[in-house]
Specification:
The protein is built from 12 helices and 18 strands. Helices cover 29% and strands 24% of the residues. It is globular, with a radius of gyration of 21 Å. Strand 6 (57-62), helix 1 (75-84) and strand 7 (87-92) form a beta-alpha-beta unit.
């Protein structure tokens, strides 16, 4: 039976509130034992002194573009990028072509993912074709392997339909992820509405768009006793709405991404479409509010919203599609802004990037408990490195982090007891 022995690591496991120096024995694709001075004759040994061993990172919000847009990314290349970023599992959103709203598309994703370097958990659509009208068959989609439902990429515009979805999802026991955006308020905007959009003469995306639908989802979930997960939070208003809802017991969880804590719309002065995403980069006060939301527990998870686009698609600032890649920079960026700059305990960051996503979606993983799958990420928290878009494993290189110096990096990713990536 294949064995891998990780020695002298700082073992961080939020699921057990574990922070200790020790060894981890991986055997037969499972975590066999955690302890000190472990011996395993014949095992492959990884000397991990100075490194942190954590449960494999989980990104609960990415776009693999497969099927339908494989010139941007596909399941195999996206998972290669995931492994390079320390991720052992990813959840892919349904805005594919065809939309992930049927058992056939779910089967396609699962079959292709069998050879991938990360576990792939599909998120299916809330409405047929993501058209916001008829609900999909949640029972069949869950049975076919969907771990959540979302029309991510667009909102469910009709509040009555969303309420119906929340009620049905509660019966079925499947999480609902909401893309909070009022399209009538956006009205063709492409960057944050404010000083910079006015300077550039570009139509802006008012933060009221995000805040209003965040408020709607909270009210709907509260009214029916259901639960809702708010995707990619970017505004101070949404953070406060979620904070207040949690305080009164609403079953709401939420995520954000590193760029909403590190970058503002000031960067759009360059007219570089690699700084365009949806929701857009906001203002300094929003960054501060998002960081505060992480520090006080209002926000549950860090995601990437990895959204690859081919270079030619990003050339025209006005016409470029929204979205950035993020799998390979996520840990370094989050560690830099949250741990190094704002004092978040590293154990808490691991929880937000592994244990909590697993809990919210009911996924295996997010733990180093004996008997669990041997999905482990080794991290060098002190490694200082510079992002180089030409060295990304993704098919696309539309990163806003190019040239940025980050501290902290995944140096080895282990999937099912086998090394899927090593620097």
């Amino acid at each position: 039976m294949e064995q891998l022995l990780i020695c002298n690591a700082r073992i961080l496991d939020p699921s057990q509130q574990m922070d200790q120096i020790g060894d981890i024995l991986l055997e037969g694709g499972r975590i066999a034992k955690i302890g000190q001075g472990l011996k395993a004759p014949g095992a492959t040994v990884i000397e991990a002194k100075g490194l942190c061993a954590v449960p494999g990172l989980i990104d609960m919000h990415i776009h693999l573009r497969d099927p339908g847009f494989t010139h941007k990314e596909d399941i195999l290349t996206g998972c290669q990028a995931a492994a390079a970023g320390g991720f052992t599992a990813v959840c892919c959103m349904p805005n594919t072509n065809p939309v992930t709203d049927s058992q056939d598309v779910l089967k396609y994703i699962q079959n292709k993912a069998k050879d991938a370097l990360a576990r792939v958990y599909p998120v299916a659509a809330i409405t047929t074709g993501m058209q916001g009208e008829a609900l999909t068959d949640f029972v069949r989609l869950k049975a076919a392997g969907a771990v959540a439902i979302s029309d991510d990429g667009r909102p469910v515009e009709n509040g009555g339909r969303m309420l119906e979805a929340l009620k049905e999802a509660q019966k079925v026991g499947i999480p609902v992820i909401s893309h909070c955006e009022d399209l009538t308020i956006i009205d063709g905007g492409i960057i944050n509405k404010g000083q910079i959009s006015e300077e550039l003469g570009v139509k802006g995306m008012d933060r009221a768009s995000e805040d209003s639908i965040t408020a709607r989802e909270i009210v709907l979930a509260e009214s029916c006793g259901g639960s809702v997960h708010i995707a990619h939070v970017s505004t101070r208003g949404s953070v406060q709405l979620i904070r207040e809802a949690k305080a009164r017991g609403v079953r709401v969880t939420a995520e954000t991404a590193p760029h909403y804590m590190m970058m503002t719309d000031q960067l759009l002065r360059s007219r570089d479409a690699n700084f365009r995403m949806n929701p857009p980069l906001r203002e300094a006060e929003d960054c501060k509010a998002v960081i505060a939301g992480v520090l006080d527990g209002t926000l549950d998870c860090i995601v990437t919203d990895h959204a690859p686009h081919a270079p030619q698609e990003k050339q025209d600032f006005m016409k470029a599609p929204n979205g950035i890649v993020g799998l390979e920079t996520s840990f370094g960026a989050a560690h830099t802004v949250l741990v190094k700059q704002n004092g978040l305990p590293l154990l808490k960051l691991v929880e937000m990037m592994s244990t909590r996503p697993a809990q919210i979606l009911g996924l295996p993983g997010g733990t180093l408990k004996e008997g669990a799958a041997a999905d482990v990420t080794l991290i060098d928290p002190n490694m200082v490195w510079k992002v180089d878009k030409t060295k990304l494993y993704s098919k696309s290189c539309n990163t806003p982090f190019d040239g940025m110096e980050l501290t902290g990096r995944a140096v080895c990713t282990i999937l099912g007891g086998k090394i899927s990536f090593a620097l």
